[in-house]
What does this fold into?
Amino acid sequence: METDIMRLEAGLYIVAGPIGNLGDLTPRAAEVLRLADVVAVEDTRVSARLLRHAGSDRPMVPYHDHSAEAVRLRLIERMASESVALLSDAGTPLISDPGYKLVRDARAAGRRITTLPGPSAAIAALTLSGLPTDRFLFMGFLPSKQKARGDALAEVAALRATLVFYESGPRLSESLAAMAEHLGDREAAVSREISKAFEETATGTLTELSARYADAPPRGEIVVTVGPPGEAPPASAEDADAALLEAMQRLPVSKAAGEVAKKLGLDRRALYDRALELKG
It folds into this structure.
């Protein structure tokens, strides 16, 4: 007697794949890859190996940053009656990978959407770094041009959180030096080849790590984690006087005292009294 083939409910399945070790593929993810009507992938050559490991012979459709809008629309149309698995080259789809437009438009079309949690290089690197993990910001890849990179770093320099970046080997030393320049010489970690045979995490200051990789760019997938800024030293009386004198050139005494109090974290009333003394 012939047994009916099990089918998945129609819709979109966001499948997290391994970031290195194929053994990290979850049983649920493997099942979806075996049962999906079609698997949308970044690179068919990369994903073919994972599908073989999962025992899947399902057809693949390329879907990446350069895919035409028509490809996305066809996938969404198929989701009305078929199951579509979304798979990136490594780790969780949409995390510094294409796919958010597919999810957004599939939801707008009323399609069923589910995610299968699994590996993420950013989260794995955080656990390896030894840096605070209570607050963190994922930054993806920094811009390649110097000014744009500096602007991106300046934007988050004051944020009291661990920062997480993806980077390539050839750019690593230069990017670490730029981080030291715009963020300060903070504690950091460089993790590469996570879950693979040559997994490595190097720690130190940004300047030390930049020097370490200056003449020896590493291979493999790289994640840089940078600790939050340290506590700023309290403002001195000289700092307060200089700030008050500058502010009083633009503002009335009361508003000048308020501005400096907010900027330096000092008592507004004491600054007001001091401003009157300076003005007198």
User: Anything to note?
Assistant: The mean pLDDT is 92.
